[in-house]
Structure formats: C-alpha cells, structure tokens
Amino acid sequence: MHIHLDVIGGIAGDMFSAAMLDTFPDLAPPLFNLLDKLTLSSRLNITLEPAQDKGLNGKRFQVRIKGLAVKDSTHFIFQNTQQHANVLTPTARASTHHHTSWQKIINTLEQAPLTDEVRQRALEIYTLLAQAESQIHQVDLPQIHLHEVGALDALVDIISAAFLITHSGAKSWSCSDLPWGGGTVRCEHGEIPVPAPATLKLLEGFNWHDDGDSGERVTPTGAAILAWLKQYRRPIVGQAQRAGYGFGNRKLKGRANVLRVCPFKTPNATESDGQYISQIACVIQCDIDDMTPELLAIAQKNLRRLDGLIDLTSQTLQGKKERWVTRLEMLCLPENLSAICDAIFIQTSTLGLRHWQTQRFMLPRRQALIEFNQQDWPVKYAQRPNGERSCKLEADALLTPLTSHDQRQSIKSSVEKCPDLTQYDRRPESAKEIK
C-alpha cells in the first residue's frame, strides 16, 4: 500500500492521527486501548470526534488537560549551565511551570507498553524533533527540557503516529507541497517567524507554496512526522481506494483546515488473469557526452549493483552540437527510485535525469537445475499464455574456456530439450522464487 498526504490546511500531530483514523477506522479501538495503558493517560482526556469544515467531513483528534484542548506545540526550553554559556535562559513565565527533561521523555517511551517497532519509530520521530530544536538553538540534547503540558501532548501525538504508521501497512508515502502560512507565533522565547525555525530545519528538501492563509500551518510535531516519513517517500503509485480527513482546531478563511490521507493499492507482484505478473516500475534516462568509455563502463558496473535496479541498457545517439552521446536507460522498483537517482548523479557526470512510471507484464517463471552429462545446469522455465512452457539455459553456465561455440550450442540445445521439467529441480524451496 502507498499513502499520499494532501496537506490542504496544514499538518500537526493531532491532524495526522485524525486523518489516519478516519481512513482506517478499525485502528481506533487498538490505538485507544494502547493510549489507555500509558501512565500519562490518567492526566489526559483523549477523544476522536466527528468534525466538519467547508463541506468536508472527517475526524478531530483531541488531547485535553483539565477540559482544555492542548495546542500542538513542543514548548521546548533550555537549561542554562556554566558549560553552555550561550544557552537560552528560560523566561520568567517558563520558570513557573513544571518541566520535563529530554531523558525523562526517552525513559517514558522505553518503558511504555509498546511493540518494539512502534517504540522505535516513536523514539526516532521524537529524536528528530529534539535534534532540530537543539541545532537551531545550539544546545546539546541533555539541556533540552519541555513544559509538562507540551511534553504530554507531543508524546500522545508521536506514539499515536508511530502506531498508525506501523499498522496501516503502508510501504511508501508521498506528500503534497506544504502551505507556508507566514507571520509570527508566540512561544516561550517571544515572537518567532512562521514556519518555525525547527519546522524549516526538519523539512529541508520539501516543497512549499503560499496559498494566502497566514499563521502556523505546519507544526514542529507534524514536521517531525513528515521528516521521518521522508525515507519512504515515493511517487504516487496504484489505484486510489478511499480518503480520510483530519481537522485542526483553527479556522482558515480560504479553505478547510484539514489534512487528507489517500491510500493507494499498489499492483506490485500481482497476477492478472493467471497469465501475467503485473508490476509497476520506474524508467530513468540520462544522456552523457563527456565521459570516457572506460569511466562510463565503471559507472554502469557500479549502478548494476544497486538494490531495486531491474535492468540497465545503453545506446549511442547524436545529441546537441552534433556530439555523440550515450543514453543510459534504467528500470527500477518505485521504492528505490530516489536512491538510484542519487547514485546516478554520484557515479556519472550527468547534470539531469528523466524518470516516469510504467507498468510491465512478465510471464510466470521458475528456476531449476537440470542434470545433463552428470552435471547440473541452471535453467529458467516460463509459462506462455497458450499453455506452452519454454526452457532457457542460463548463459552464464556456459562461461568456460574449455568449450567452443559448437559445443556450447550443443549443450544449450540438449539441456533445453530435457523432457521432464520438474524432476531435476533439487533446490531448496526458499530458492524457488520468481526472478
């Protein structure tokens, strides 16, 4: 499954949870059962409520303390120590509140009744958030403290996000451009520009746009969730199934303050009518006119080793200024697109790439070992649409200086005509996979 996030009004931790729960309502009971088991839950009132804005219907995920909804804010402050002379000193207002240390946050997550996968993701998201704040303010993580209210709110949002990410089953994610907002917002250190410095730090590499509605549209917690999902960011792929809507508390003038979640059914490795295997893939192209054949050959060899690369071919064309160019064309899995593009820029001199999605059909196939002349020969069988099975000897098996062309041709013909296609398949079951 692939999930796309449409950041229409904005994104915060509570909006992400609301949109995911509106999309996957079956996840609400186990999530709230988990939240009820947390030691911090006795001090909070956490609800999932119906919501509507600008004609759209969805959910609102509310965290209340003493009946008041908590704003999605991290409320970071910093202790001043002699070892950190440039560390920000808490304001007078901040010093009147109870604070929670960064180490206590870590301890809370480590002791919470979470599965290892959910716990690890929650720790990683929270760490991204804290690291961004520490880099912006040039302090070490141990010096970071949070207001108690902010810490509880962020813990609920991040644990909920980690749970929903894990149990959604999504293998890849994508995100629309983010609304800039603008203006300022008041924090414990005074007025700061929007988007907040930590938010910008977390979202380096994301695209932004100005839609005319000001204010804080992307909160630090929402940014931390997006920053963690970035490692799984892929183009939209598959068939749209449904949509869920998560609303924030703030009202915008020009649009609904909503985050939309759209899951897509991805057709990778599925059979069509039992005849073909249908798979979504990506094509990458680049033209190179300034690399020597020796260096280009090395680059291609390195690229062929990449995970997710299905095939690489090259051809010679005439390009601009009547120069001869080598066009590289690669086929890869969608989830490996970004990593392979990075590798192409690193391994070659190209300054630009083209890529697009395509769909390929493959015949069902299996590999086996055929015994001929007291030797095992690897072959590949394919099932044709008319019911026939073809057999092909793997060419690498003929790489030996002891045979001539006629000998190789004879062995190939004899092996591929072996009458029984299954009795010699003596490989372990784990090796009998479609390639």
UniProtKB/TrEMBL annotation:
Q: Which UniProt keywords apply?
A: Nickel
User: Where are the stretches annotated Disordered?
Assistant: 404-435
InterPro entries per record: Ni_insertion
What spans are recorded as compositionally biased (Basic and acidic residues)? 405-435
Instruction: Report any Pfam family annotated for this entry.
Output: Ni_insertion
The record ties this protein, via PANTHER family, to: NICKEL INSERTION PROTEIN-RELATED, PYRIDINIUM-3,5-BISTHIOCARBOXYLIC ACID MONONUCLEOTIDE NICKEL INSERTION PROTEIN
Q: What is this protein called?
A: DUF111 domain-containing protein
Organism annotation: Budvicia aquatica
